Description:
Blueprint: H1 12-18, H2 30-36, E1 44-48, H3 54-61, E2 66-71, H4 74-79, E3 89-93, E4 107-113, H5 124-134, E5 135-146, H6 165-172, E6 177-182, E7 195-201
Parallel strand pairs: 1-2, 1-4, 2-3, 4-5
Antiparallel strand pairs: 5-7, 6-7
Amino acid sequence: MSDDEMPREINWDAAYAAGVTPWDKGAPAPPVVEYLQRAKVTGQVLVPGCGRGHDARAIAMAGATGVLGLDISERAIAAAPKADDPGGLRFEVGNFLELEERHRGSFDWVFEHTCLSGLHPSLRAAYAESVAAALKPGGKYLAIFFLTPWDEGEQPEPPPYAISTDEIATMFDGRLQTEEEWWPTRHFSGREGRELMRVMVN
């Protein structure tokens, strides 16, 4: 692997400490809110890279019986609101790419929003492996894929990292099958036409 291909270590705790968290909009992602209004996400749900837990909380409020928000940043987890959280919602510090044995095969759903786009492309295979490993047989992966965070020629130093549908297919080949795909109609400002949603089955 060349120097240009090496993953750049991100100090996520430092980013939270400095308040440099552009991925955190202070609310759940509009595409998942839209999805939860028309479909059920039930059972045990894992939200890797959950940050301060906005999406995890929205999923729990919609009726999932057990939602685990997992993030590598201790500061993010410490900032996740807990006082009025629904029952069954919990948060843990952990590395999704080094999935603990107790979490393997434990979840009916894994939800993706900005965790994948924060990872260097060299880590995508490990990410996909963790998704498949976390799911129960027949479990589902609900993803908001951030395809094009920046216009061509405008991208500052990543993350976030862009991803193509071909790259997504390569990641999950032999692991998950696509059940449904659509372009969401609700977005955070600036993400219109940049996000693709999928439900994939283990």
